[in-house]
Each structure stands twice: as structure tokens, then as C-alpha cells.
Amino acid sequence: MTLAGRHVLVTAGPTHEPIDPVRYLANRSSGKQGFAIAAALAALGARVTLVAGPVTLPTPEGVDRIDVETALEMAAAVEAALPVDVAAMVAAVADWRVEGSAQKIKKGGETPVLRLVENPDILATLARSAQRPTLLIGFAAETERVLEHASAKRERKAVDWIVANDVSGDVMGGAANTVHLITQTGVESWERMPKDAVASRLAERIAAALV
Ligand code: C5P
Fold first, then answer.
1. Atom 2 of ligand 1 has which residue's CA nearest to it?
2. Homologous superfamily of 7-209 in CATH?
3. How confident is the model at residue 13 (pLDDT cuts 50, 70, 90)?
4. How far is CA 183 from the centre of its chain?
């Protein structure tokens, strides 16, 4: 199975949303699963563009990496990477950013109140775009009713596949993952395995789907 001649986009990691020039809002995404997927796709011969949020992971061999900090930067980098044949949107994009974050907030006055504004949904935007990839894959980190929530997300976001992972345990930052692959035709539950193995299996599935 090969992905030679295919251009694949992967987003990975968290985003950091500045509160002011020295502080930020973040989440617990390590970027490990997304980086492993980028590596596995490159190993199958794909041209891989990896849009990475702030993580300290090394760039996988043969992968073009674009580093971003915020969701807005990630959205712009994704748009700039198009067209692609496949997109695997693994990043844990912050749902909100902080409004008005230009100056450092000083201690001593009233306790500050953060006002949040919604970030664009990069995946849903790509699903509606004129340059929608042939195969569009979203991820769903769920802590309860994993399959039900993830299947609903597949339809709501108009994506082809959802990889649902149960993050109620120690998945965030850990080396193993338990995922369910939800496609147009059904659900496959994969046994718990290392994130590298999840990545290889997903890359093989992607290659098979494009034949
Ligand atoms: O709705 P939820 O955030 O759980 O959806 C997760 C999926 O949507 C992931 O594939 C994630 O990369 C993508 N997403 C995105 N832009 C956002 C929020 C989520 O691309 N602002």
C-alpha cells in the first residue's frame, strides 16, 4: 500500500491563546498522536504537511512542518497548505480565544474577568470549502458516551471519518490510545495500542481508501 503522489495535511498539538503578552490559555494535548500519524503517512510515501501547535516534539522524517501558536494561525496555515488529497485534523484546537489581549494585565487592581470569543472551527470550515479534501478525517476526544458523541460529530461536521478516542483515562500525554474508527459504513473498535501503532493502522486505512 502506498501514498506516493498524495499530499496529506495533518494538524497536531494544542493551540495557545494569549491572555496577554506573557500568559496564555492551553489544553493538555501533547501532539504525540498527530505527529505519529504524520510520520506513518510519510513512511507510506505521502507528501505530508504538518501544522503543529506549540509542542516540543521532533519533526518526523520527510515531513514539512509549519509551527503555529493560536487557532487563528492554525486556520491560516491550513488554508495555505491546500489543496490536499487527505486531511487528518488531530489538533486539539482551543474553542475560545481571549478578547483584547494586547497589554499585560497588572496585579493590584480589580480581579480581571476574561471575555472569550469563539475560534473558527477549522475542520468544519474545511468540510464546507471548495477545496475540500477527498478524504477528511476528524478526531473526537470524548470522556463519556464516546461512540454516540463521535458519530453525531461526524454528521454535524460533514467529515468522512471520525477517530474517536476515549480520553477519560491517561491518553493525554501518554503513549497508548484506545480508538474507534467511525466511517460512512460503520464503527471499528481497535484494541488499546501504542499511538505509533494507531498511526500506522490509520495510514494503511487511508491508503486503502484512496485506491
Ligand atoms: O468539536 P470538537 O472540538 O470535539 O471536534 C474535534 C475535531 O474538530 C478535531 O478533529 C479537531 O482538530 C477539529 N477542530 C478544529 N477546529 C476547532 C475545533 C476542533 O479543526 N476550532
1. 140
2. CoaB-like (3.40.50.10300)
3. very high
4. 17
Asked whether 139 lines ligand 1 (CB < 6 A), one says yes
Q: The pTM is what?
A: 0.95
User: Ligand 1 mean position to 108 CA, how many Å?
Assistant: 37
Q: Say if ligand 1 is within 6 A of residue 93 CB.
A: yes
- Say how many Å lie between the first and final Cα of the chain, rounded: 9
Q: Does the C-beta of 14 come closer than 6 Å to ligand 1?
A: no
pLDDT digits (tens, 9 = 90+) for 71-126: 999 999 999 999 999 999 999 999 999 998 788 898 888 899 999 999 999 999 99
Any ligand 1 atom below 6 A from CB of 89 = yes
Per annotation, catalytic residue among 27, 119, 165, 177 = 27
Q: Is 91 in the pocket of ligand 1 (CB under 6 A)?
A: yes
Catalytic annotation on 165? Answer: no
Largest Cα separation within the chain, whole Å, is 63
Q: Using CA atoms, how far apart are residues 179 and 163, in angstroms rounded to an integer?
A: 6
- 188 in Cβ contact with 181 (< 8 Å): yes
Compute φ and ψ for 202, nearest 5 degrees: -65, -40
Contact 207, 174 (CB under 8 A): no
Find out whether the peptide bond into 83 is cis, omega within 30 degrees of 0: yes
How far is 133 from 135, CA to CA, in rounded Å?
5
Ligand 1 centroid distance, CA of 138 (Å): 7
